[in-house]
Design a protein that fits this description.
It comes from Nocardioides luteus. This is HTH marR-type domain-containing protein. With 104 residues, the protein is mainly alpha-helical. It has helices at residues 2-8, 12-24, 46-66, 73-100, and strands spanning 28-32, 40-44. The protein has 4 helices and 2 strands, in the order H-H-E-E-H-H. Strand 1 and strand 2 (40-44) form a beta hairpin. The longest helix has 28 residues, at 73-100.
Length: 104
């Protein structure tokens, strides 16, 4: 749960409420962390995976219509290059933390 909240940059209470709502719908299951009783894991259920798979085609279609259909192939290539640099910079702190042992 901590890592999920960190990646989403959500407050603990917001994440807990969302996970409870998703668990009530059968999309995820919350599992205790045996190593740290304060922690918990969130597992995607088969129903949760089905929901993602069902939503994906419409999501991709919408993103394509709203964003990519407005750009030329050259502009898409430029965006790809720009965002690759952003992704590399986002990954760099996590990689550095793993290398020096400060990642938990």
């Amino acid at each position: 749960m901590f890592e999920l909240g960190d990646k989403l940059q959500w407050e603990k209470s917001r994440l807990s409420r969302q996970v409870m709502r998703m668990a009530a719908r059968g999309l995820v299951e919350r599992r205790e962390c045996l190593d740290d009783r304060r922690g918990a894991f969130v597992d995607l259920t088969p129903a949760g995976l089905e929901a993602i798979e069902a939503a994906a085609p419409e999501h991709v279609k919408l993103i394509r219509q709203v964003l990519f259909d407005a750009f030329t192939p050259e502009e898409v290539a430029s965006l790809t290059k720009l965002y690759q640099g952003v992704l590399e910079r986002l990954a760099a702190p996590a990689e550095a933390a793993e290398e020096d042992g400060s990642a938990a």
